[in-house]
Write a structure and sequence with these properties.
- This protein has one domain.
- Helices cover about 45% and strands about 20% of the residues.
- The protein has a 6-stranded antiparallel beta sheet.
- A hairpin with a 2-residue loop joins strand 2 and strand 3.
- The longest helix has 22 residues.
Amino acid sequence: MSDYLEMIEQAVSAWEGITSNPHRFGGKEFKVGKQEIGHLHRGGLVDIPFTRKVKDELLREGKASNHHVLPESGWISFWVRSEADAQHAIWLFRLSYLHKLAARRGRGSIQAIDASDAELQQEIGGLRLSAVLRSLLASFED
């Protein structure tokens, strides 16, 4: 288990602008600027914030579960029990990171990133988002 958590922590911590600090309930919290992109609990539970609409689509697509404490919020939870789970958790963190990065850069949407940053456009394409998720991430409406 700890190897999988270390894999996630190393991957997420390496992204540009990411800071990693102890989380108030144990584990590690990851932020870009002042915005949390998610946190990792020692027991293998990952919690990541999204808008409610994005969260609902991630649930419909089977890519996450309702948050274990705040099911009515935009937060999702995901359990890491295998290497495949760790890779999926990194994907979820990356999705949150790109979403927050777009907002920090003042572009307001992932589509705005598409139009102006070839590198980020390529990365977003690499996430292989469903058409529904991609359209939901095109704006930051809740």
